[in-house]
Amino acid sequence: MNSPLPPQDERKAPVRMVQPILDRMIAAHEAWLKGKAGGKRLILKGVEASRLDFNDHDLTDAEFVGGSFVESDFSRAKLTRASFFGADIRRTTFIDADCTRSDFRAASLIGADFEGATLHKADLRDGVMITAGQDGELDYSGSARANTNAEGASFIGANLSDARIGRAAGHKTDLTNCNLSGASLIGADLSGADLTGAVFKGTDLSDCNLSNCVLAGASFADAKMHRTNLEGADLAAALFEGAFQQDVKLAHAKYPVDPSRIGFNAVEAVTQHALWVDTQGKEGTQLFLEGYDLGHAEFAGCNLSAAKFVRCTFTGADFSGCDLTFATLQSCLLKNAKFVNARMRGATLIKSNLMGADMRNADLSPVPLDPKGPRPFWAARLNDVQASGANFTGAKLVAANLRRAILRDADFTNADLRHANTQRADTKGAKLETAKR
To answer: Which of 12, 136, 339, 371 is 20 to 30 Å from the Cα of 202, by its Cα?
Structure first.
């Protein structure tokens, strides 16, 4: 049977776009959006537009169907309802872009960076791939089913709520702190992905492959998990409360450690740690726990300075008045935990889930070191934390690292945020009016 397409050497080569022409077309598009004379919608069907700048522009309703935008920059662009159907956007940057209701079906997103982007109700499912004919118009005669491929893409802190993803999310995709509430991930292959702090509230994970995933701090409340594959996944510090699970595969999954089953005595461990601190390590034993479930534990007033907790569950635990100076609580589930008046100077909480935590009057200010040395002080590290709805009223966060933290609806009333690093932090809805900055 003869091919419906012309020989490769007879096909019309894609138009190569250059930046000056693109800038004029973008200006015309923005004029079109405002209803101004001379305005024209941006349509780049089948165009070669790799390594060009689209950043910081309003590209609402623009069309990029079948084009090549490899390594181009769409950072902070408004791409509401834009269509990238069948487009090649490998290693393309969409940092902080608004891709609400955008169409990425059948696109190649390999290595793309969607850090902090909004993809609310975006469509990343598979589609039907089409080609451009000799006249430059799309040729449906040789259409074939094509998969959206997001392997190796980064969606750190992105909002994918209510998005239709299907099988698009690729192997080892970085979804740290990603909001996937209400999204459809039916049949998606997320094996080996980093899902630390991700929110799957009401997400459909039926037939989804989450094998060997890192799930520390992830929340699956009200998620639908029919035949979900969690084989080999790290379930320590993950929250599955309210999830609907049926025929879930859990072979070789790593469960959190139950202290009561191994005879762990928390009181004795804390006592030995305090002795270790008081004697500068000459007596006692430093408290170092990994993967333990210590939900609702009472640590109020304890000396946990320089203690180390990794991938531990502390849901509802009480650390009020605790000394956590230089302590490490990394990739921990600290949902609704209490840190009222806690001393947390120089503490590390990287990638922990602090949703709903009570941090009132906690002291997370830096610890002075050698003023003449390479590091004059040691600041608290809260980068990549998921702290939506946390209460930081009156907290001292001077010079704290809050880079890429999710701080939605958090309360910073009278908090001290001077010199804090809030680069790429999501503070939507946060109360910052009376905070010192």
So the answer is: 339
pTM listed for this prediction = 0.80
Adjacent-strand bridge partners of 46: none
* Residue 366 included in any domain: yes
Q: If we measure between CA atoms, which residue out of 26, 135, 48, 125 comes closest to residue 85?
A: 125
106 located within any domain: no
Judged by DSSP in three states, 334 sits in coil
DSSP letters of 247-304?
S-B-TT-BPPB-GGGTT--HHHHHHHHHHHHHTTTSSS---EEESBB-TT-B-TT-B-
Domain count, the chain: 1
Would you give the distance in Å from CA 79 to the centre of its chain?
20
Q: How far is the C-alpha of 217 from the C-alpha of 209, rounded, in Å?
A: 19
Residues 255, 238: Cα–Cα separation, whole Å: 10
Round to whole Å and give the CA distance between 201 and 113: 23
125 part of a folded domain: no
CATH code at position 395: 2.160.20.80
Angle made by CA atoms 136, 137, 140, in degrees to the nearest 5: 130
Type of residue at 312 = C
Stretch (H or E) spanning 30: helix 19-33
Bridge partners of 199?
179, 219
Q: Is residue 334 part of a domain?
A: yes
pLDDT tens string 120-158: 999 987 654 444 454 544 444 344 445 667 777 888 888
Structural domain of residue 281, as residue ranges? 256-437
